[in-house]
Design goal:
Helix 4 runs antiparallel to helix 5 and helix 4 packs parallel to helix 6. The protein has a four-stranded mixed beta sheet. By secondary structure, it is α+β, with helices and mostly antiparallel strands. It is built from eight helices and four strands. The structure holds glutathione (GSH). Glutathione (GSH) binds next to helix 1, helix 3 and helix 4.
């Protein structure tokens, strides 16, 4: 089984950490989406990473579908069984991923558009959403114990992505979010190695 990924991708980081934690063996395949490689396009028409490719060639995407897959096939469950806790985990993952969507929109706007076509209002709007999301987390920071779930993986990816692409812009006034990031690294060093990096 393969997971097509890139080291900076927060969603790739989330699923690779979750698969490692759940004891699901996989081969990591470094993938440059901008080149539309046939292995990616052939298994995911959207041409996005992460994409998991089963041994029989079936492509599984997007990252949330891959997380559900890992939960079903891993040796350890990555979502709580209790319905209320499960809903909490799902919301936490949606928020972590959703903030990443906004941050990625900012990065792509700056990176992919010609300078004179960059839309500052669009960037501001995406940043406002990110700020609201981060403040929401800061006000009610999820606990980080030994047993972790999909929501924790999403937050570990989000904070890794923030540290990578937005250093100095998110930490001030958010000691709990920063603390989560630090504690995750200390508690799970083998997973920390899979967090977003250049
Ligand atoms: N909702 C998707 C988002 C995946 C995504 O946007 N991945 C980015 C990399 S972090 C990507 O593949 N971008 C290339 C593209 O959109 O063409 C998921 O959760 O997997």
């Amino acid at each position: 089984m393969k997971i097509l990924y890139s080291p900076a991708s927060p969603y790739s980081s989330k699923v690779r950490m979750a698969a490692a934690y759940a004891g699901l063996a996989y081969e990591s395949v470094l993938t440059d989406t901008s080149k539309n490689p046939p292995e990616l396009i052939g298994s995911n028409p959207l041409g996005k990473i992460p994409t998991l490719i089963e041994d029989d060639g079936r492509g599984v995407f997007d990252s949330r579908a891959i997380m559900q897959y890992i939960d079903r096939y891993g040796t350890k469950r990555i979502y709580p069984r209790n319905p209320g806790k499960r809903t909490d985990a799902d919301i936490m993952e949606a928020l972590g991923d959703g903030i990443c969507d906004c941050l990625l929109a900012i990065v792509y706007e700056r990176r992919l558009r010609p300078e004179d076509k960059i839309h500052p209002d669009w960037i501001d709007r995406q940043w406002e959403k990110s700020v609201r999301g981060m403040d929401h987390l800061e006000a009610d920071m999820p606990r980080l114990g030994k047993v972790i779930h999909g929501g924790h993986f999403a937050l570990a990816s989000l904070t890794g992505y923030l540290a990578l692409r937005f250093p100095g812009q998110w930490e001030r006034g958010r000691p709990k979010l920063k603390g989560f990031s630090r504690k995750f690294a200390a508690n799970f060093p083998e997973l920390d190695a899979l967090r977003p990096k250049a």
